[in-house]
Amino acid sequence: MSAAISLRGVGKHFGSLQVLDAVSFDVTQGEIVALLGTSGCGKSTLLNMVAGLLEPGEGELWIDGKRAEGTKDRNALSYMFQEDRLLPWRTARANAEFGLEAASPAIASRDRHTRANAVLDLVGLQGFADAHPHQLSGGMRSRVALARSLVTGPRILLMDEPFSKLDPQMRTQMHDELLRIHAMQRMTVLFVTHDVEEAIVLADRVVVLAPRPGRVREIVSVDLPRPRTATDPTVAEAIRQLRLLI
Amino acid sequence: MSTVPRSSFASTIAQRVVLVVMLLALWWLASLRMPQFVLPGPLRVAHAFLGLLQSGTFFDDLGITLYRVVAGFLLAAAVGAPLGIALGSNPRVAHFFEPLLSIVNTVSSAIWAVFAIIWFGISNSTTIFVVFMTAMPLILTNVWQGALTVDSNHVELARSFRMSQTQIMRKIFLPTILPHFFAGARLAFGFGWRVSLVAETIGSSNGIGYRLRQAADLVQTDQVFAWTVTLVVLMLALEAGVLKPLERHLFRWKKTD
User: Fold this and answer.
1) Contacts of A132 in chain B (CB under 8 A)
2) Which residue among A90, A159, B248, B251 has the highest number of C-beta atoms inside a 10 angstrom radius?
3) Which CATH architecture describes the domain A5-76+155-245?
């Protein structure tokens, strides 16, 4: 089985500034991988290149065993941003449907409706489909954003610090939610974080990046049973060990 | 929007009624001390209004003025909105053309009316042109400012779903601009309505503006008042009966606290 995402010597310059240098790692199908690093290590740049939001620089990027050229052909991917980026004029359901509206050939509006409802149920927002974003709490908005990312049934989910704007309690809830959905759908997840605890709680493996220019410092496997709580001694120890690396 | 709680809705109505009665009373008292041709009283104006209704041309005049305002307004929207979007999405073009907008804005509606007479003579086009020249810059400016408020995060979101430029325009730009367009359109319609009368007084042989001038020339002050009251009531009805409810429906997603 080929890797879901494979980076081989990926680099990137912004003008004369080198932000990424020869980054190589694989993400296997169904795996959850964290990209961990301090700010300025190019982790978001890396994610944007995988997502096709940014032209790749040097090196090769393979997705689902195929060479990804430029910023095209990313249909298997969904991207979840740091902010929820809900469209304020749309209801929760219409926001979830947004993910389906670019599909070609077009999906009938009734099917979009059904799929949006199903995915809102999945993230625990039954009964809130007709609410507008300003009527929802931060955690609920985050769930709508997750629903919008999942509605296309992506094989790969990319996340750029998606829960960093939430308060700690809500963040833990969203972690549980994500792991629950992952257990059902087995999509590949690659996410960026600067939060060591988040990396340990969620990821199968953690790619630790070193800054200026961004490069792989170490790849750490997290072989702990789930669910993982930060207060559990073995989890706390893993967090401590990882913190020493960055 | 309003900070008045819902429970006081009845009280608001009562206050409005009191205000109208007060104004009518003041008007009536003032008219007692003035000659009829300077300030006719409410009753006499009501009579004049009934006379207008029976004159046979009342609804024709109302209709033709409304037609001119709406035509000028629709033209202004059709030209102003796309131009506003174009300027909003091309900062360099906008920077180049910005002075032109200032020039157009400084020219008074009366001057446009004079030009219109020279170019179009006594015709519908004269009034339509004046309404257009007044309304178009207002719509353009508002749409332009609206286009500048488009959230680049939303555009990036649409791109992450691989949406085309047309889809981004339709699903991100237009909904963002719509409230601004609506505000501009409301302003433009109000201004257009007022300047249409100015244009009609000098460049037309029918319509409300023409009748106003005719009544003034013949010192039929009561008819001037009757037309004025008609216009005010019409505009208030349009505002409360169409624009406000439409705005509330279109922008129900906005925070109202």
Assistant:
1) 252-253
2) A159
3) 3-Layer(aba) Sandwich (3.40)
